[in-house]
Design goal:
- The structure is a single chain.
- The protein has four helices and nine strands; from the N terminus they run E-E-E-E-E-E-E-E-H-E-H-H-H.
- By secondary structure, it is α+β, with helices and mostly antiparallel strands.
- A five-stranded antiparallel β-sheet has the order 1-8-3-6-9, covered by helices on one side. The chain has a four-stranded antiparallel β-sheet with strand order 2-7-4-5, with no helix packed on it.
- The N and C termini lie far apart (about 30 Å).
- The relative contact order is 0.17.
Length: about 170
């Protein structure tokens, strides 16, 4: 067993995607150091959150995103004010195509091989990159309503997110 490995299954074998909504009251709290094989994207809705990823700590506030790469040891801590954030977890292979194509070759495989990296912290995304921010709202809505095809809509939103990050020079 590797130290700090989070043993919780995120999503299901048929739908390897999970959202955790964290609504923390006015007291300091923390998520213990851990790592997992999935990408984790944190979207801060309200308050502030200190995220430590591989011993680099950054404080994020409402409107910020954090991207925690698979197998990175990380923790999240709040201060004394309320904080509300969402954690989106999925393996990068969740977005793979059954047929190898240019998208897989130029975008998805380099992410999986860590040749193309997400930014660790993106500040003020809600204002600076509203299209990126709104995609997370769509993913939340789809996964809350769970209407027919929500899984497909989720993948489309995530692929669109990666496209926008790439176009903005953030990948």
């Amino acid at each position: 067993m590797r130290p700090f490995l989070e043993e919780i299954r995120h999503g299901t074998p048929a739908y390897a995607f999970q959202i955790y909504h964290m609504d923390l009251p006015e007291k300091a709290s923390a998520v213990n150091y851990h790592w997992h094989r999935e990408l984790e994207i944190l979207r801060i809705e309200e308050g502030s959150l200190t995220v430590t990823d591989n011993q680099t700590a950054r404080r994020g506030t409402a409107g910020d995103l954090f991207f925690i790469m698979p197998e990175h040891i990380h923790t999240m801590r709040t201060g004394s004010a309320p904080v509300r954030y969402d954690a989106f977890l999925f393996p990068l292979s969740f977005l793979d195509f059954a047929s190898y194509d240019d998208v897989q070759d130029q975008f998805l495989s380099p992410l999986q091989q860590k040749k193309l990296l997400f930014p660790y912290h993106l500040a003020d995304v809600k204002t600076r990159y509203p299209k990126i921010w709104s995609l997370f709202g769509e993913v939340l809505s789809e996964n809350t309503a769970r209407s027919h095809g929500y899984q497909l809509a989720t993948k489309i939103c995530l692929l669109k997110l990666f496209c926008l990050l790439h176009r903005e020079g953030l990948l």
